[in-house]
Design goal:
By secondary structure, this protein is mostly helical. It is built from 11 helices and 4 strands, in the order βαβαααβααβααααα.
């Protein structure tokens, strides 16, 4: 990295001459990086503490998909009434969560606060890291980098929101109500609920980074626009299979709700890749 410091020569600046620039040493880079990491840690810690002391709001958000009063289920019922398709509206339900370990509620509270703090502070941390890296780039690279950074943030957040409002509720409702036998009562363990919750949101956030991954791979010559177009039909089949696994319900409408965004991501990946891998 060849980061530079500006404004070291005030006399030149006063005479209307561009300030002298000098290349920073390795230790100066390391010191700057240390301060960036320290400030990022402080931001994450502050957001984590904020979430920790907003326990009631945090638990409301996390456990909202636990019952049929969740906003997504109410929206599905409203849509079912509008289109006269009663099967689209889920029946009333409430899945009971069970805790069997003494310290689990406290550690779950801490872990959830940390994850929420990381998510809340993610844009600020990325901007801090970008400000550290940007001076080492050429102006053209900086102009390209800013939209890419913003796109990564927006795509990741969009994936997390889709996971929270659609993928996790539908999957949880099916799995939580599924019975292996009539004499088996479902009481979902708190740890199991939280693990699936975290995994679903993180997975969807990463899945939504598909266009950025495709763009990067095309820049280094691994994939091309023609390659993605060639395997479009295969991708559709894979998307439908993944959508069926994520939302193991019987109605095609739910499958479409998950599969359509994934297909749009694939098409977006095609649009951002280079035409030929050899041009990268």
């Amino acid at each position: 990295m060849s980061k530079h410091r500006d404004g070291d020569d005030n006399d030149d600046a006063a005479d209307g001459v561009a300030p002298a620039q000098r290349e920073m040493t390795f230790w100066e880079h390391l010191e700057d990086l240390r301060w960036v990491l320290l400030r990022s840690t402080i931001v994450v810690a502050a957001c984590t503490v904020l979430m920790f002391f907003n326990k009631e709001r945090l638990t409301q958000i996390i456990f909202a998909p636990q019952s049929s009063d969740f906003i997504v289920y109410r929206a599905m019922c409203s849509l079912a009434a509008a289109v006269h398709f009663a099967d689209l509206c889920p029946d009333e339900f409430s899945v009971e969560l069970l805790n069997t370990r003494l310290a689990s509620p406290f550690f779950t509270h801490m872990t959830s606060s940390l994850y929420a703090g990381l998510l809340l502070s993610l844009p600020v941390v990325i901007i801090m890291l970008w400000r550290f890296i940007a001076p080492a780039l050429y102006p053209r690279e900086r102009r390209r980098g800013i939209p890419l950074i913003l796109s990564c943030i927006v795509l990741f957040m969009s994936g997390v929101l889709l996971g929270y409002f659609l993928v996790f509720p539908l999957a949880f409702r099916f799995l939580g109500l599924y019975q292996f036998g009539a004499n088996v009562i479902n009481r979902i363990d708190l740890g199991s609920y939280m693990n699936i919750f975290y995994t679903t949101l993180l997975s969807m956030g990463l899945v939504f980074e598909m266009p950025m991954l495709a763009y990067t791979l095309s820049r280094i010559g691994i994939i091309s626009k023609e390659m993605l177009r060639k395997y479009r039909r295969h991708a559709v089949v894979v998307i439908l299979v993944v959508g069926a696994v994520i939302t193991p319900t019987s109605d095609p409408f739910t499958l479409m709700l998950v599969s359509v965004p994934m297909y749009l991501l694939y098409e977006l990946s095609i649009s951002v890749t280079k035409r030929k891998a050899a041009e990268a």
